[in-house]
Design brief:
alpha/beta, Aspartate Aminotransferase, domain 1, Ornithine Decarboxylase, Chain A, domain 4, 3 domains, 4-stranded antiparallel beta sheet, globular, pyridoxal phosphate, aminotransferase, lyase, Aminotransferase class I/II-fold pyridoxal phosphate-dependent enzyme
Amino acid sequence: MSKLIIEELNSIVDKKLISFHVPGHKLGKIYDKLNYKNTLNKIYSMDTTEIPGTDNLHSPEGIIKESQERASEVFKSDKTYYLINGSTCGIQAAIMALCPPKSKIIANRDCHQSVINACILGDIDPVYINSEIDKNTNILKGINIYDAIKVIDSNLDAKAIILTYPTYYGMTYDLKRICDYAHSKDIVVIVDEAHGAHLGLSEELPKTALEQGADIVIQSTHKTLPSFTQSSMIHIQGDRVNEGRLVSILKIIESSSPSYILMASLEIAVDIYNKYGTKLMDELLNNINKLKNSFKENNNIEFYDTNDKTKIFISTINMGLIGYELETILREEYNIQVELSNYYGSLLICTIGNDSNDFKSLETALNEISEKYRANKSIEKIEYPNNIPVKKLTPREAFYKNKKSVKIYESIGKICGEYIIPYPPGISLTSPGEIITKEIIDYILFCKEKGMNVSGLKDSNLGQIQIIE
């Protein structure tokens, strides 16, 4: 018999699942540790709306205005706005505030799907910078500086450039150099810093996007800091952004009934960041270093060297496992949940909500797994399809075209009518309006068989795909 939502959530709480995934509060442990429990015990009673005293997110003059100003001060922006529709609405508002219909935006190819959705909504034409990939792990490493400069020089009519920094896997690059170059060409810089809200907490971490000169920065506060899922922030600095237009678009795409619970959780996250964040980050980085040092003599466990040290990618090749298998073993046998897996390993997102016991449990599990699965089989090589597909239509043109479903291998060479997105992390291999290649079809079918989830397709079994008629 299937469970209801509340039954499954209660089960996860009762099992005390060990979380190396988002959200950053880690099943609320950080709230208990820092004595926010009394406030949060009343959180359901705080579910209210715009009444006298509660202010209005879309026209703040009181408590919300003051709360956002405090967040701006803590995160060192000129202006900060709370987002209660996740970073998605911040990305879409930033893009549409800067890029009028029929204009052009430059984006890293491994951008989040919300970037392409914004191009559909705003009738904007995306131009892509290819992303670099580690072929031994299929980790997306970000963009090459010279590739970015080349695309900028070829598209000087672009209104903005949007970049993902850091990548989902915690990789970074010289963002400041790109910001400076884009600004020299009168191009505004938006940064999707969804996975970097915590970067300002330690000198051992990469510099923040604001420190490197970005004009608009969107952060998923809930991912790496302790706010509730779907709560995020958008930060602005400098005079290149039409703030009024940005606010107007936020009013259009955000709910007209914003959640006070989500806003309250953002305020709590800001408070924790400001009062305890640096100390907690020092403890976290120390726990991560201890974990990695404990496996220095273990050749079966290999940790990828990420720029953002709070991201841990465990390569499974030497154990003769694929990443999806490691994820399943950790969850079913050790009550540990990772963030995501790809073919070659598993990614763990560590935050200031994790404690030393989490890492002790992980160390025990990895020791036992590496002993049990010591190169039990060889791993077949698979290449990530990293070439940018040919674009025949803009995303918006493709969205409104008539479509038909065909058998998946019959779609090769045709114009895609939907998304092909391995999820997580939600990065599109093929978007509406692009030519479908055999390389991509082979990849998704192979990886789905091994355990990868693929979203964006009407047929989740991947038997058919929609193409433009």
